[in-house]
Amino acid sequence: MTVTEETETPAVGSSTRRRVLVLNASREPLCVVSLRRAVSLVLTDKAVVLETDGSLLHSEWLSVPAPQVLALTRYVHVPYRGAVPPTRRTVLQRDEHRCAYCSGPADTVDHVLPRSRGGAHEWTNVVAACARCNHRKADHLLSEIGWQLRTTPRPPRRAVVLSALTRPHPTWKAYLAA
Ligand SMILES: [Zn+2]
């Protein structure tokens, strides 16, 4: 079945328009899919529509509201923690762009146990840091300079990763915050 999208409705951020947020049956954010995939999930009763953008998609046989947020009808178990690697973007998102040391605006990533001293590049050893703190800390251990972390670094929730890797549509916000 071919589904075509109505063309006359200019939507918020056309680049984000054709992506649909999929929640698990538990309502936890799961992934982001193409509009085509989303419609197929709905038409096969694998998902229900929670939010639409108000426009309609037309096929030869029927019209369906263009979904923006779906929930799966059956829970799927997806092992995930740690599956997404820490990158500058995902780490800054997890730490809300706040420096782990001084709470100021952060735009760099610091290895708590420096790589030069055997520190691994993993979620529990990376934090957002401002350039100043990162530079001052250099290759020191926290104990050597009397610094402390504000929080213990952990793998992020899926919603945090989705926010970092996609440009969330405004209608997704409530679901990603849950
Ligand atoms: Zn700082």
UniProtKB/TrEMBL annotation:
A Pfam family hit: HNH_5
Keywords associated with the record: Endonuclease, Hydrolase, Nuclease
Domain HNH nuclease residue range list: 86-135
Entries under InterPro entries matching the protein: HNH_5 (IPR029471), HNH_nuc (IPR003615), NA-targeting_endonuclease (IPR052892)
UniProt GO MF annotations: endonuclease activity
Keyword Hydrolase appears in the UniProt entry: yes
Keyword Disulfide bond: no
Signal sequence interval, chain numbering: none
Record-given protein name: HNH endonuclease
